[in-house]
Design brief:
By secondary structure, this protein is of the alpha/beta class. About 35% of the residues are buried. The chain starts with a helix and ends with a strand. It is elongated, with a radius of gyration of 23 Å. It contains 7 helices and 9 strands. Helices cover about 50% and strands about 20% of the residues. Helix 3 runs antiparallel to helix 4 and helix 5 packs antiparallel against helix 6. It folds into 2 domains: about 150 residues, no CATH class; about 90 residues, Immunoglobulin-like. A hairpin with a 4-residue loop joins strand 1 and strand 2. Strands 2-1-4-7 form a 4-stranded mixed β-sheet, with no helix packed on it.
Length: about 250
Amino acid sequence: MNDLTENRITNQVFGLALLTATGLLMLVVSVFLIDDTDLVTPAVLSIVLGAVTYVVWRFDATWSAGLGLVVALAAASTVFYLAFGIFQPFSPIEFVAGILLMIGFLFALVGGVGSLIRQRRGSAPGGARARSGALMFIGVAAVVSIAGFLTTRSTVDAALASEAVVVDMQNFAFEPEDVTIEAGRRLILTNSDAFAHDFTLDTFDIYTHIGPGSEAIVDVSSLAPGSYPFVCSLHVFDGEGMIGTLTVEG
């Protein structure tokens, strides 16, 4: 690597590259793991971030540092929800996306401000050790998340499942959304998504977390006959998203 290339690898470029990786990760997930989803947003995000990353790396000037700052702020505000993935350590895709977003944004923000200051002072870029540490942290976090995912997946005994009403969670929706169950019968949730979900009935303090690829029995035996709305509290916003209705028959 020549000195010129070495000097162009700044913390801002590194942060923008991580944000680009976040967009590409979500694009891959959207293409291969989620049906009927929006592909435009992650595609445009990846292209714009990749182009700006190249511009900032190529020119390393005051105007390019300012452009990188603006784009980093805009990108983070667009996909801020990905940051909540850091609270799902055993859901690898969500967790890695959250880590990439948070670390990428911090490097792009702090590094962008540092680049503007450095341009005015004429000093050389630094931070190679911080970048190496960040990459190591991301790698370790990904390995731990995958290991946790593989060791914490839960399944329900086949005999129990055959006697239960099954609700699947796939493509960020309950299937079926309207569930009818006889009083005292078991309810089983299966998560076919690559993301963590939950089953929440706030009125009765019923909450069950289901990780990616897992199954779980939900205790609804305390419910009297009637209809009750339920949600995935992780993926419902302003009354829209993962919502369903449970009808208990007497």
